[in-house]
């Protein structure tokens, strides 16, 4: 049975449609699995036992009557606990919202429910999404399924761990500096950050209005395609082309910029990422060097925007009750207190200039996508980074922040494991609304490496071995 928990959404949807398993039975078994593994992983803040069963019963009745809403119909999905779910508490990983019960669904939750997804629970996160490790001072740290001593990444670490450990068939995360892509890479799954504003942020506690993105976290690239179709703002789906698929990468030009993206990398991880680049070339892609200027200034501008906007949102509560925040979150908010209006405005101008320069370079070099590592050094041990240093974690662990500054779609795809059996991912960034191209490249690569089969057959053993659970 355990291999079923590591199946992809496509396979589960087929089993449900053929009535080889019921949504109720699947949900019940998954809830049992969550109960078994939660003491080890702490991936969830709230498990929606009763609501999930009720949803599954409703979806099962519709399926038996011949009504199938989407490939997500009756499939249990996890939600980062930063989205409002009607009738359920939404903590945002904080004690401040510990008892907050929402009277509405976030836009993306409504779309998922309309598609027939079963919301099975709300996953752990770094407090208010302000960190890259998911070491939550209020609800405890989430642990990486591949090594329980290690962080899963963040801030969507609970979502990544839940999918990687077979505790959900997909999950929703947020990404402001890499909070979908970094934990996805560290936990060995796929993470997609769509184009800015393609997925509505209404009903999601903000971190930075300028940089926040919402996207799917899944076991395969094809599953990200399934979830994105459901999650995308219906008014903007006409901007996407998600239906065309490719058999190879002939004609695709992949740009690499050694500066920043490949600097200060763990050498073992660099070899793994470079091996995936060679595979992309073997599949037909042309790899070219592309110069990107102004990266350092752009990253500094991003930090200013992020800390200024996060402080602005939290200022009333933080001014009155700073003690209710965790130590690293206090440090982050204090760093945004003294940002001046001119600093913020200049940073916004710097961002706009950088977006133009990157797109100009991609056009000049006829570059379809940019390639880089996702995680560039191994996952930290839990508790190894003091609160005052945690503000830099996202910039040290990965090469994801630039994707948020640009607002361009980006995806991370598993590409191997270190000698210590820790996952490594590579990142692709494309132009606005070219998610279809990212998914195409990812699916061709994934198929060539047989990742879907590997994840189903190997993760079921390796992940549970790491957690000392019988497979």
Describe the structure.
The protein is an alpha/beta fold. It has one domain: Amidase signature (AS) enzymes (Alpha-Beta Complex), CATH 3.90.1300. The chain has helices spanning 2-5, 9-17, 23-41, 49-64, 107-114, 157-164, 181-187, 221-231, 258-261, 267-282, 295-320, 327-336, 341-364, 393-397, 401-406, 435-449, 451-466, and strands spanning 44-47, 76-80, 118-123, 135-136, 140-141, 170-175, 190-193, 213-218, 253-256, 286-289, 369-373, 410-417, 423-429. The strands form two sheets. Strands 1-3-2-6-8-7-12-13-11-9-10 form an eleven-stranded mixed sheet, with helices on both faces.
Please describe the structure with a list of short key phrases separated by commas or semicolons.
471 residues, alpha/beta, Amidase signature (AS) enzymes, 17 helices, globular, Amidase_CS
Strand-helix topology:
Layout: H1 2-5, H2 9-17, H3 23-41, E1 44-47, H4 49-64, E2 76-80, H5 107-114, E3 118-123, E4 135-136, E5 140-141, H6 157-164, E6 170-175, H7 181-187, E7 190-193, E8 213-218, H8 221-231, E9 253-256, H9 258-261, H10 267-282, E10 286-289, H11 295-320, H12 327-336, H13 341-364, E11 369-373, H14 393-397, H15 401-406, E12 410-417, E13 423-429, H16 435-449, H17 451-466
Parallel strand pairs: 2-3, 2-6, 9-10, 9-11
Antiparallel strand pairs: 1-3, 4-5, 6-8, 7-8, 7-12, 11-13, 12-13
Helix pairs in contact: 3-4, 6-7, 8-16, 11-12, 11-13
Indicate the CATH topology: Amidase signature (AS) enzymes
Structural class: alpha/beta
Nearest-integer average pLDDT? 95
| Gross CATH architecture | Alpha-Beta Complex
Uncertain regions: pLDDT < 50 for 5+ in a row? Answer: none
Rg of Cα set? 21 Å
In CATH's first tier, which class applies? Alpha Beta
How many DSSP H or I helices? 17
Question: What is the distance, rounded to the nearest whole angstrom, between the alpha carbons of the first and last residues?
Answer: 9 Å
Dominant shape: globular
What is the β-strand count?
Answer: 13
Spatial sequence of strands, sheet with the most strands: 1-3-2-6-8-7-12-13-11-9-10
The CATH homologous superfamily is called Amidase signature (AS) domain
Protein name: Asp-tRNA(Asn)/Glu-tRNA(Gln) amidotransferase subunit GatA
Pfam families: Amidase (PF01425)
Family: Belongs to the amidase family.
Keywords: Transferase
């Amino acid at each position: 049975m355990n291999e079923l928990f590591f199946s992809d959404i496509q396979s589960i949807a087929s089993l449900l449609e053929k009535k080889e398993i019921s949504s109720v039975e699947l949900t019940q078994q998954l809830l049992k699995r969550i109960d078994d593994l939660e003491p080890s992983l702490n991936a969830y803040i709230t498990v929606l036992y009763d609501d999930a069963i009720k949803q599954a019963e409703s979806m099962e009745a519709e399926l038996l009557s011949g009504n199938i809403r989407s490939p997500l119909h009756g499939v249990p999905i996890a939600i980062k606990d930063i989205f409002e779910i009607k009738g359920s508490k939404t903590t945002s990983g904080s004690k401040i919202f510990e008892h907050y019960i929402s009277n509405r669904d976030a836009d993306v939750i409504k779309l998922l429910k309309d598609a027939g997804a079963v919301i099975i629970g709300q996953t752990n996160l770094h407090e208010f999404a302000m960190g890259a490790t998911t070491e939550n001072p209020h609800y405890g740290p989430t642990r990486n399924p591949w090594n329980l001593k290690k962080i899963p990444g963040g801030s969507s670490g609970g979502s990544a761990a839940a999918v990687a450990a077979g505790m959900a068939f997909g999950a929703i995360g947020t990404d402001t500096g890499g909070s979908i892509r970094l934990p996805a890479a560290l936990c060995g799954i796929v993470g997609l950050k769509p184009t800015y504003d393609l997925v509505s942020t209404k009903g999601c506690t903000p971190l930075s209005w300028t940089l926040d993105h919402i996207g799917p976290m899944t076991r395969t690239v094809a599953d990200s395609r399934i979830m994105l179709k459901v999650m995308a703002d219906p008014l903007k789906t006409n901007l996407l082309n998600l239906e065309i698929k490719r058999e190879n990468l002939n004609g695709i030009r992949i740009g690499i910029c050694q500066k920043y993206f490949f600097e200060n990398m763990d050498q073992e991880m660099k070899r793994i990422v470079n091996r995936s680049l060679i595979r992309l070339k073997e599949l037909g892609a042309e790899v070219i060097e592309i110069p990107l200027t102004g990266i350092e200034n752009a990253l500094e501008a991003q930090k200013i925007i992020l800390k200024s906007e996060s402080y602005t949102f939290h200022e009333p509560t933080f001014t009155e009750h700073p003690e209710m925040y965790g130590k690293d979150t206090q440090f982050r908010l204090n760093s945004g207190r003294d940002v001046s209006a001119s600093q913020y405005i200049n940073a916004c101008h710097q961002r706009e200039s950088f977006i133009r320069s990157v797109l100009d370079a991609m056009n000049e070099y006829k570059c379809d996508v940019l390639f880089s590592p996702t995680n560039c050094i191994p996952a930290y041990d839990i508790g190894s980074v003091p609160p005052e240093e945690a503000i830099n974690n996202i910039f040290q662990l990965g090469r994801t922040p630039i994707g948020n500054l640009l607002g361009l779609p980006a995806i991370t795809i598993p590409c191997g494991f270190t000698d210590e059996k820790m996952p490594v991912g590579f990142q692709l960034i494309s132009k606005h609304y070219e998610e279809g191209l990212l998914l195409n490249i990812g699916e061709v690569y994934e198929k060539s490496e047989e990742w879907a089969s590997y994840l189903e057959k190997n993760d079921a053993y390796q992940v549970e071995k790491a957690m000392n659970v019988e497979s």
